[in-house]
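Practice problem 4.
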């Protein structure tokens, strides 16, 4: 046994599904999965039902999270074709603005360049009044985070450059994308990006084996795309899970009739750290690469508060197989089931209290804080 201590991880991209899809996940089950994965802060996406696109809905979501979460939670607001930038009055209460310009689960995709101009312009105007958030301060707004694949990526880069808004690119998966982001960074564009464990450790080669369990947006990419992410590791600011739980039945696994439109997305909160520690064991990463991308950079990109007296204890000698049965997510499955990993989360301490130990969540629901809601 060889226990190391790391800061609690920040997962800057999760879908905790409340309200509307509580049968897939809710703030209790999702944040319990987070603690089991060594994650003490999550940023929750707005593609719920209804979406987090207005001040009332953000307030409602914050109330739900405050009652149930066992780790700290930041909430994104999202732009919609019908409500535009209705979230603007409460922009400071969100960790950032999420804009979808590529297809995925939910109804949040923005369809016109005209609306994109308006969304970037109004966010920039708001930032001109209140500034961008630094170091967890109550004041200021976060960046604009986009799901922008392929040809949509340069559109977002151009708008962020035009309106001088910090842009964060969610789940980068292709060589063409990471090379463009790197080139943009080298030319001084204010852009950061993230990669998920599934895009770093799986490729189209795994699809025959995974079937529907390998379907997510962005889709798994080619081995050459995966190689490009590793080649350009320096340009990847954040590792985030894109934890996107759906039931296996919805994905069409183990049911007689295939669903017409199986939802894309895979759970990830409980497997990210063991997978990354296995990459350390294999010499692909070092521990600093993990802390930089799962703690320091998410905090810097989103201006998140530090979590005092908060750490995780990991047994880096523990070698075991990831299984579905051990998971706390309601989805109850992982595309990494059966994989041997090095490194097990033994204990999680949040603000001085042991909230997880030896496989059990010890925290009371509501122990987690919702960020930026004011007093
Ligand atoms: C996500 C979901 O299910 O909410 N699905 C996915 O495949 N990643 C949506 C998203 O992040 O695009
Ligand atoms: Zn997502």
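Answer key:
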């Amino acid at each position: 046994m060889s226990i190391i201590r790391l800061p609690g991880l920040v997962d800057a991209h999760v879908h905790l599904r409340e309200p509307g899809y509580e049968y897939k996940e809710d703030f209790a089950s999702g944040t319990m999965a987070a603690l089991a994965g060594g994650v003490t802060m999550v940023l929750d996406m707005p593609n719920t039902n209804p979406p987090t696109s207005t001040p009332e809905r953000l307030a409602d979501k914050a109330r739900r999270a405050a009652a149930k979460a066992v780790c700290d939670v930041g909430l994104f607001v999202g732009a919609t074709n019908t409500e535009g930038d209705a979230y603007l009055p409460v922009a400071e209460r969100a960790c950032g603005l999420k804009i979808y310009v590529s297809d995925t689960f939910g109804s949040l995709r923005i369809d016109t360049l005209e609306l994109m101009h308006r969304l970037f312009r109004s966010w920039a105007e708001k930032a001109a009044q209140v500034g961008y958030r630094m170091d967890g301060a109550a004041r200021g707004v976060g960046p604009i985070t986009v799901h922008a694949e392929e040809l949509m990526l340069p559109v977002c880069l151009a708008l962020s450059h035009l309106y001088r808004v910090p842009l964060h690119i969610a789940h980068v998966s292709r060589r063409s994308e990471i090379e463009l982001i790197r080139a943009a960074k080298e030319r001084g564009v204010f852009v950061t990006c993230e990669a998920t464990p599934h895009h770093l450790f799986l490729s189209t080669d795994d699809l025959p084996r995974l079937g529907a369990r390998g379907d997510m947006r962005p889709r798994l990419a080619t081995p050459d795309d995966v190689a490009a992410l590793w080649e350009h590791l320096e340009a990847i600011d954040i590792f985030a899970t894109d934890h996107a739980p759906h039931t296996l039945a919805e994905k069409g696994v183990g049911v007689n009739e295939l669903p017409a439109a199986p939802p894309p997305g895979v759970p990830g909160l409980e497997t990210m750290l063991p997978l990354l520690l296995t990459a350390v064991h294999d010499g692909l990463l070092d521990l600093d690469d993990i802390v930089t991308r799962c703690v320091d950079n998410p905090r810097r990109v989103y201006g998140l508060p530090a979590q005092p007296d908060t750490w995780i204890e990991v047994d880096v000698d523990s070698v075991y197989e990831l299984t579905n049965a051990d998971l706390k997510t309601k989805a109850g499955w992982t595309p990494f089931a059966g994989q041997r990993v090095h490194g097990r989360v033994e204990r999680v301490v949040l603000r001085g209290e042991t909230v997880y130990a030896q496989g059990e969540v010890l925290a009371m629901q509501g122990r987690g804080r919702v960020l930026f809601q004011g007093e």
